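Instructor's aside before we start: the two examples that follow are unrelated to each other. I chose them only because their records fit on one page, so don't look for a connection. First example below.
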Amino acid sequence: MLAGAGGAYAWQRQHAHPDKPAARAPAPVPVTLARVEQGPLPKVLGGLGTVQAYNTVQVRTRVDGEILKIGFREGQVVRKGDLLAQIDPRPYQAALDQAKAKKAQDEANVKNARADLERYTKLGDYASRQQTDTQTATVNQLTAQIAGDQAAIDNAATQLSYATIQAPIDGVTGFRLIDVGNIVNAAQQTAIVTITQVEPIFVVYTAPEDQLGEVMRALAAGPVPVEAWSSDGMTRLSTGRLDLVNNQVDVATGTIRLKASFANKDHALWPGASVSTKTRTGTIPDAVTVPDDAVQHGPKGLYAFVVDDQNHAHMQPITVGRSTDGRTQVTKGLSPGQSVVWRGQSRVQEGALVAEAKPADSPAHSAAHSADNAALASSEAR
């Protein structure tokens, strides 16, 4: 009887609310997964810097006169020796012609004096010793005068050459500061144009003083590659090498200044521009890495969601090292081959069931090559 009553009671409870659905298990949380990988990870130091011209020249006149011609366009790429401006050369040409004429006159005089000296020498005892000595002195004096004439010719030719103003270096011209028809003089402070050399070009940037040892060891081992990126870290502009570490640390800021050179054939770097830098100081050969976004910050420190064989996510405390090219080195807490939640952690809790949602583009799994721009921006932010 009791068994029958119990069965009837259970049947009544089951069918008391026929329209109420049975409780369902929670749906899996859609996430993007990534593998924990082991392989070489570049050691990259980030910094901020300013582009500087390799050389900067303010072109001024070295002689006085009227500008007859301007031989360049503003912003033009010029080569060493190209015509920049022409100053009226006539006064300097006249001075050169005058110096040449004076030398010709003195050469004629010394020729005559030498002939007289030769006659006095042949006369022997018929010419007094005083006459011979005086004529010898005259020849020497006129010979020295010819040397002075040649120096005057060289000086006049130099002044004449200054009337043709040529580019002293390869570079890019700036604004034209003086127009045709103006009178210029060597004492004036205003330049005709400024030329900046941009091939090659420098980037001067800073690094914390605690990175100095790593940089110096890299320099001692060989060339140190440096990449210049846009200030937002989204676009790589050029690749060069580290040339100089400054000879002292700035005690006020605790930083060291460094200078890198770039070929800059495409003129992607421009003097005065702000850039971010990435200095590659070496490689960690067997680094355990995960995508940057897999690393989460919690009240007790850093962690990552590890997914087990039953697709359940578990919080795993981790310790991390450096971050490069969109991947972060994990020094403790994870092993190669494990699956971690890469995206979608905001809806994941401890022990939650997850299901992988394939992204439109796969992550960069190899630390040997550069990640996409979004991952690089994330790396720089860290």
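Example two begins here.
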Amino acid sequence: MVLVHGGFVDGSGWLGVYQELKNDGYPVIIVQNPTNSLADDVAVTRRAIAGAKSDVILVGHSYGGVVVSEAGNDPKVSRLVYIAAFAPDTDESVAALIANPAPGAPVPPILPPIDGFLMLDQEKFAASFAADVAPDEAQFMADSQVPWGVAALEGKVTKPAWRAKPSWYLVARDDKMIPPAAQRAMANRAGATVSETPGSHAVYVANPKAVAALIERVATATLASK
């Protein structure tokens, strides 16, 4: 498996999922994307895929879903998994997908860009991104944010891999960054196999067992199809 993080965070958030998968005998690679631009992140992810010793299940959280939608065209990628993630179509970006939120939908507390990079309001980070994460860990996530490049936010997918490869999607029902209704709409458009779990946007941190269980189901289905 190759796990791809989203914006404002780094790959360390996958630790719990990584441990669950490794304990069950799966090889795992964690991508550390700079999140400066989509092109850079796709290149970094493709290098991780190239380093895998076998076919890859490519997993993306949040903005990482944009990255896997593009990088997933690599021939070594057999399956895609979206965890509360953006699943853009051709010529779509995160900027386009969040441009017209539904009435009453929560608005992520993204601060105005500085030098081409975005951050979340630290005081509102936990409530919006990590409401079910332990308070001290959520505070650490807020204080250790990785600036997210506007160029990454605006990066457009050229050829979504989900159009050619099987995909799965885990909806986080309590997400206040990507509304659950938007997650379901993207998942259905992608023809993904959809499952849902209670959880915030940081469901992969707060409930790694549920996330790992889905990835392992995908791995089992992959083996069964061979």
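The two ends are 17 Å apart (CA to CA).
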